[in-house]
């Protein structure tokens, strides 16, 4: 900030001060506006005016003319100075130079000043300056001596600023898109194998793993991947059998309980932590199907639990058969070597390709108070209790477990409790729960405290949307072929409703404000890609209808 040595005006910079002196004081001496007398400086000129040109006394009885405010036109009289300072002080900026105002400025913080590049007006507020410059540009209102070059310069600067803002916005969008790709495993950072090796190297560097163990686990992993089977190191077996015995002897507050038989728990490992829940839940579901003779023919080529890369390959094979072509296009037909999230649609396509009959049920909005989903609980109760007869307290059914998807995560329903007060409680296997915790259930105490790992009451499930995949028998080859043809017609003809059933009075077209059939309304490519990425969390799943 600089002050003119001739007139005392405060300017924003040394450059502005020199320009001001050049235009306002060509002879570099202030002159009296009344008589033209030269003075060496502003203070001397002020003393000259007060001594040589005193304000004449008004005639007796004469009325002094009222002074008007130059900003608002309001008559202020002798209070003009106080009026201007009080009402228009921020507009004055550096022009407020009365002795009283100078004393005020001495006691206050000096404000940032902004000078108009066209006329030199100084403002204390950047927004006022922008509005002022806009008036110049709109009205071509330049001071005398100004040139059209100033307008061209201002317009060019504005164009460059707009261009820079667009570039920054495009950069932010690209960064956000890359972040979404990383979050949903669609970047080029590798898949299960690469993450497993990276995490083991990190453990070695931190001293938590010996180099010998690193090489041994690497060799074991490579062998399992070569055969396409899971290494079983995250598996916990026998939990459902322990639960069956526990409910028969303990837990007096439970009226009835239904359980899926023979479900093994699988939790995430170093290779799939953060993205593998869908694959782990499929392993849990498959562990039960492999122990049910009804599905022997369907699973004759899948005698052992497949590894996650093998499951990815199986889903790709289902796409190649023609199941879920829309989903295949979302992933560009490729899952292997990636950390892509999967959800209910991929599980449905994989099971159907194996000739396992199943359906997706979409609970896309709460149906109870405080965001709860009572219809979800009621549907699961009907699923387990439909084929059970008698009044047995504990029913170990032949029903396979249920794949349960919600935003960003999925779990496996292995049973349901009906309390004596008629409330319902789901029993869930969570792939995020480590084996050390799940193994506590194998030594279940009489008080059942460890059951808190499994129990989920209605108030615990308050996501906006849930989808479940429920197995319901096997498909003949003809039925499988018919389903495949129907799926291929989905996106070229009217949607037909047979494998997905919405609950009564629940529409399925809108999910979290998005049209699940058509995606975003806008045609913007980036927005479409973001929609396709968000779809993989299971929140924006479009429903398969055949």
Unreliable segments of 5+ consecutive residues: 93-109, 494-546
Identify the overall geometry.
elongated
Report helical residue fraction.
40-55%
- Note the gap between the termini: 74 Å
Q: Roughly what fraction of the amino acids lie in strands?
A: 5-15%
Number of helices: 17
Supply Rg.
39 Å
Mean pLDDT, to the nearest integer, reads 77
Question: Major β-sheet, in short?
Answer: 8 strands, mixed
Number of strands: 16
Please identify the structural class as seen in this structure. alpha+beta
In short:
The protein has helices spanning 14-24, 42-52, 80-92, 99-107, 126-139, 148-183, 192-205, 211-227, 239-249, 277-289, 308-321, 325-330, 344-353, 374-385, 435-438, 477-490, 525-535, and strands at 2-3, 10-11, 114-115, 122-123, 235-236, 254-260, 265-266, 356-363, 394-397, 402-406, 409-419, 424-429, 455-457, 466-474, 510-511, 514-515. The chain has 546 residues and is of the alpha+beta class.
Give me the secondary-structure topology.
Elements (H helix, E strand, L loop, with lengths): L1 E2 L6 E2 L2 H11 L17 H11 L27 H13 L6 H9 L6 E2 L6 E2 L2 H14 L8 H36 L8 H14 L5 H17 L7 E2 L2 H11 L4 E7 L4 E2 L10 H13 L18 H14 L3 H6 L13 H10 L2 E8 L10 H12 L8 E4 L4 E5 L2 E11 L4 E6 L5 H4 L16 E3 L8 E9 L2 H14 L19 E2 L2 E2 L9 H11 L11
Parallel strand pairs: 6-9
Antiparallel strand pairs: 1-2, 3-4, 5-7, 6-11, 8-14, 10-11, 10-14, 11-12, 12-13, 15-16
């Amino acid at each position: 900030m600089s002050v003119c040595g001739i007139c005392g005006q405060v300017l924003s910079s040394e450059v502005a001060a020199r320009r001001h002196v050049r235009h306002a004081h060509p002879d570099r001496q202030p002159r009296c506006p009344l008589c033209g007398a030269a003075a060496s400086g502003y203070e001397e000129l002020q003393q000259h005016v007060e001594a040589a040109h005193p304000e004449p006394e008004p005639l007796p009885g004469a009325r002094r003319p009222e002074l008007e405010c130059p900003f608002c036109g309001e008559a202020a009289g002798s209070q003009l100075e106080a009026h201007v300072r009080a009402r228009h002080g921020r507009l004055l900026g550096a022009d407020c130079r009365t002795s009283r105002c100078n004393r005020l400025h001495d006691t206050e913080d000096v404000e940032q000043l902004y000078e108009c590049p066209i006329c030199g007006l100084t403002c204390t507020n950047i927004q006022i300056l922008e509005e002022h410059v806009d008036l110049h540009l709109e009205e071509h209102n330049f001071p005398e001596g100004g040139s059209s070059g100033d307008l061209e310069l201002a317009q060019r600067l504005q164009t460059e600023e707009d261009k820079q803002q667009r570039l920054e916005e495009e950069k932010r969008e690209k960064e956000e898109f890359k972040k979404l790709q990383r979050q949903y495993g669609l970047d080029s950072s590798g898949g299960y194998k690469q993450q497993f090796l990276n995490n083991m190297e990190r453990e070695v560097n931190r001293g938590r793993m010996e180099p010998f163990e690193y090489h041994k686990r690497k060799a074991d992993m490579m062998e399992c991947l070569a055969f396409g089977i899971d290494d079983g190191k995250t598996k916990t077996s026998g939990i459902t059998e322990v639960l069956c015995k526990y409910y028969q002897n303990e837990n007096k507050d439970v009226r009835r309980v239904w359980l899926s038989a023979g479900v093994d728990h699988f939790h995430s490992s170093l290779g799939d932590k953060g993205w593998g829940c869908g694959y782990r839940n499929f392993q849990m579901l498959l562990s039960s199907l492999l122990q049910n003779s009804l599905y022997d023919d369907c699973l004759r080529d899948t005698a052992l639990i497949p590894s996650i890369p093998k499951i990815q390959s199986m889903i790709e094979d289902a796409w190649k058969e023609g199941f879920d072509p829309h989903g295949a296009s979302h992933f560009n037909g490729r899952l292997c070597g990636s950390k892509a999230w999967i959800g209910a649609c991929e599980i449905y396509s994989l099971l159907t390709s194996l000739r396992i009959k199943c359906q997706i049920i979409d609970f896309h909005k709460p149906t109870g108070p405080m965001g709860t989903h009572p219809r979800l609980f009621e549907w699961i109760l009907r699923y387990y209790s439909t084929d059970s007869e008698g009044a047995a307290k504990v029913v170990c059914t032949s029903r396979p477990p249920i794949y349960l998807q919600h935003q960003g995560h999925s779990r496996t329903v292995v049973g349901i409790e009906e309390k004596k007060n008629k409330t319902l409680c789901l029993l869930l296997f969570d792939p995020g729960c480590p084996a050390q915790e799940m193994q506590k259930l194998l030594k279940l105490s009489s008080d059942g405290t460890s059951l808190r790992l499994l129990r989920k009451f209605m108030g615990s499930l308050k996501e906006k949307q849930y989808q479940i995949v429920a197995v319901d028998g096997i498909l003949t080859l003809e039925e499988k072929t018919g389903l495949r043809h129907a799926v291929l017609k989905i996106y070229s003809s009217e949607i037909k409703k047979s494998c997905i059933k919405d609950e009564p009075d629940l529409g399925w077209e809108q999910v979290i404000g998005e049209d699940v059939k058509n995606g975003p309304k806008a045609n913007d490519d980036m927005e479409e890609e973001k929609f396709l990425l968000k779809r993989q969390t299971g929140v924006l799943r479009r429903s398969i209808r055949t």
